[in-house]
Design a protein that fits this description.
Elements: H1 6-16, E1 28-33, E2 36-41, H2 55-74, E3 77-83, E4 92-101, H3 106-114, H4 132-144, E5 148-151, H5 158-174, H6 176-184, E6 186-187, E7 195-196, E8 202-204, E9 217-221, E10 228-234, H7 239-258, E11 262-265, H8 273-283, E12 288-296, E13 313-315
Parallel strand pairs: 1-13, 6-7, 8-9
Antiparallel strand pairs: 1-2, 2-4, 3-4, 5-10, 10-12, 11-12
């Protein structure tokens, strides 16, 4: 690879692939030239049943973009981001130019250090309350990226949204195409994508909300009865808003990780258009929900595998 900043690029790509994605599909490619990295949506890894409009894939690529920027910053360089730079290539979501020397802030260093240890914790959380300071920090992190993070217990919507999540989960349980897609991305062992059995979590029994079961064990476990559930919203929708929402989601998740919190997603209402519309009406017509996840203090788990950088890399001559 002939690049003027090859060590920076390598660090950036190794961080980018650690972003979260639905079913750990990793729907991204990276086009690398001289001091420039393009973030591309990989159409071959889009979930056609639960993400036909590519919204969740764009969120994932937005999260990868933030990881990439943070890694460049702590490697000592600035960067310039251009969103949707080519009108005739909508799959090219962003182009990152590596700029002059940069001294990483303490916040950038803290978030970058959380990239490798962040993971979706699908197991029950402890009953320890999430303190007000941590709640404020996670909300502010989303706000720094132009999004809003609504903690449902603080606005009196937890019960209503919990019912919506349960109904959406039930619909997906009955959907043979969805279940086949879920099974296709659940790994018993090996592989560098999908959700491996060890990270799938137990089958939920009791608790307020169902956590998606990926098949680690058929033994049922009770989940928390009073979860902290967050909904990330944006003032508009569409490809650009979804890319930005992915950045906001990842900044919130990395902030939570740096504070010792765990998180995992309630994607069910985001993947059924009618349920997402109901959620929007509950939150207000000016709020477009983009992601729903729970926060809490989780017991230790493991990160899920990622494809090697070489598998997601395109060299631009």
């Amino acid at each position: 690879m002939i690049l003027t900043e090859a060590p920076v690029v390598t660090a950036a790509l190794e961080a980018a692939v650690r972003a979260p994605s639905p079913h750990n599909t990793q729907p991204w490619l990276f086009e690398v030239g001289s001091d420039v990295i393009g973030v591309v949506l990989d159409e071959d890894r889009v979930l056609e049943v639960c993400d036909p409009d590519r919204r969740e894939a764009r969120l994932s690529c937005g999260a990868a973009l933030l990881n990439l920027e943070l890694a460049i910053a702590v490697a000592g360089r600035s960067c310039d981001v251009e969103f949707l730079p080519e009108k005739d290539r909508p799959e090219l979501l962003a182009r990152v130019g590596i700029g002059p020397r940069h001294r990483a802030s303490a916040a950038e260093q803290r978030l970058a250090a959380s990239i490798r240890v962040r993971y979706s914790n699908r197991r029950p959380f402890a009953s320890t309350p999430v303190p007000a300071g941590a709640r404020h920090a996670v909300r502010r992190a989303a706000g720094d990226e132009g999004a809003k993070l609504v903690l449902l217990d603080e606005v009196g919507l937890l019960e209503a949204v919990a019912g919506l999540i349960r109904r959406a989960d039930h619909l997906q349980t009955l959907d043979d195409r969805f279940q086949a897609e879920l099974r296709a991305w659940t790994r018993e062992s090996g592989g560098n994508d999908g959700v491996p059995a060890y990270a799938g979590g137990p089958r939920p029994s009791g608790g307020l909300l169902p956590v998606r079961h990926h098949g680690e064990s058929e033994q049922a476990r009770e989940f928390e009865r009073d979860p902290v559930v967050a909904v990330l919203t944006t003032p508009t929708d569409g490809p650009l808003a979804q890319i930005r929402a992915g950045r906001a989601m990842q900044r919130a998740l990395l902030t939570a990780t740096s504070l010792g919190l765990s998180a995992s997603f309630y994607s069910q209402p985001m993947e059924i258009p009618s349920a997402r519309a109901v959620l929007r009406s509950l939150l207000g017509e000016n709020a477009h929900p983009q992601a729903v996840f729970r926060l809490g203090y989780g017991f230790p788990g493991s990160t899920t595998p990622r494809r090697p950088v070489g598998d997601v890399l395109r060299i631009m001559r």
